[in-house]
Amino acid sequence: MAIRKGNFLIGKLKNLVFRKFKNVQIVQTKPGEKTVRQSPDTKKKAYLFGRASMLGKSIRWSNRNMIFGFHDGPMINRLTRKLQEILSQYYPVKNETHQFTTDGFARLNGFDFNLNSPLHKSLWVEPVITLSGHELNLTLPEINIPGEIKFPENCHSCMITISMTAIDLQNGYESVRPDYRKIELTKEQKSLEKQKLSFQLPHGCLCITSIVLQYFFTKHHLKLLYNHKEFNPARICSAVITAGDFIFEKNKGWAQSSWTKAAFDKYATINQASPRSQPSYNPRTYTEQDGIFRF
Q: DSSP secondary-structure letter at 284?
């Protein structure tokens, strides 16, 4: 059945498929049964894409308070492609799986959540990050104002928020309460002195450190957020895999997702693996029980 949405038809009608693409009506003939054949390699590539998409969803959800929904349109696909490139190194189609390395996800470093407002155009200094065991140290150099941080017109203050989130790729746990650091500055300041921050990282996790600039203006004596869909400077500045085995801590707050390393081991050894065989994942349906968020 096809239904009308505005000026477009969406759905199936007899042997035709109707869809919308960039304000253009697309009509295609419906493929017949058993006309689409996939080789084992093609099936594995499709499965890898599905797992990359699922991991991307976890990363976006764990950084939801940094993104605020203010990302550019293609961001989801850009992140999925980046993860697909990374995961293909660990799960090549024709070879055995490989163990994750500390810097295996380093290609995520510098990923902007909104290409309409990349971070470097608003903040001209680069944070320096070092990893010592399970402690991540971040140094933000001295910032000269307004030379090295740009304020939108009518904005009087800026909150620099740095967060660390973690995903246990072995068992599928992910943190629901990121570790935040906030630094506030005003347009009237001459400079912000060098900031040294540290984060304790959990064992055996993909740990992602992100930074966002939130600008504020005053209207009717109210302090309002300036960031919007076309302007939200936010970036991943570090992605590392920590050593050791994940240790579940009840009071930390962890969500259980469908991501597990076992699923990828299955991908590497079973030709019939398909992303549709995995349960769907919707973090917004969690309920808390015994310190674990389950759906």
A: G
